[in-house]
Amino acid sequence: MANNQLQAHITPEIQEAFKPEVLEVIRGSIAPTANDQEFLLFAHKAASYGLDPFKNEIFFIKYGNTARIQFAAEAYLSKAREKEGFQPPDTQMVHENDEFKIAMNKETKEMEVVQHEIGFPRGKIIGAYSIAYRDDHRPVTVIMDITEVDHMFTGQNKDNWKKWTADMFGKHVQQRALKKQYGLEFDDETINNGEGQGAQGYKPKERKDITPNPDTIDQPEDNPKEEDPLQKLRKEMKQKFKQLGITTNAKIGKYVEDNNVKMSDPATEAELVGLIELLDVHLEMQEAQAQASDDETLD
């Protein structure tokens, strides 16, 4: 679809929310891998909900023939602030040495925090809670054991969860409390089509137009004591395939074929980097979908 044709399909919501030059920047920086239809849907959702892509309130993620529009935790706080009676939520970590108790409120039949006292050293984080307040409404309390987010410490964003546990865990539980208190519901959307663009930003310098043999990807590594860049990349690639549950040569072959990945034989460093980037995007989408499923389960 040409640029003038794209403009013709822009919805009134998009026109009201974004100037043409801003829309162009969003297309080039936030959703560079989106085709016209995907970008229009992404822009329309951002405009309809009043979310700012530049503030990381809404994301566009793509791998192979699949794209995903994902709403961030910041989106819930941003929209809650606009609601009548908004009060800042109280979000806290619970550590193993804290004095912490919860109890059922006999009137509301809801679990509430009745005691939370801290001392030092506090020990490891073992849980978190968030209380979403609102004028003329009962507080909504969401309490989570850290075991409920175990998958976050092994997923694509595991490094941030391990380094910034309190911040990441806090946003996670706060999002759920705000969602319930203010009736916020953002519908993440997965788009499947036959116009995939392969690996995100994947442009190897030298490549033959062939589908790689899985044995080429999984070729033996020489001189393990003096690991070269290619060996490190192969190890990283194998680990990411394992995280995705792709553990056989047949499954690897199907993955690269389904995602239109083309590589030389043997694979070059640039091509392995491109494949790893694609795997990263796929892992991110897998984690996002898992988190969305968790939210639905608790509703």
TrEMBL record:
Region: Disordered, residue numbers: 188-230
Cite a single GO BP annotation: DNA metabolic process
Q: Which organism is it from?
A: Oceanobacillus jordanicus
The organism's superkingdom is given as Bacteria
Query: What is the official name of this protein in its record?
Result: Recombinase RecT
Q: What is the lineage of its organism?
A: Bacteria, Bacillati, Bacillota, Bacilli, Bacillales
Show the Pfam families listed in the entry: RecT
For molecular function, the Gene Ontology terms on record are: DNA binding
Q: What InterPro entries does UniProt report for this protein, alphabetically?
A: RecT_fam
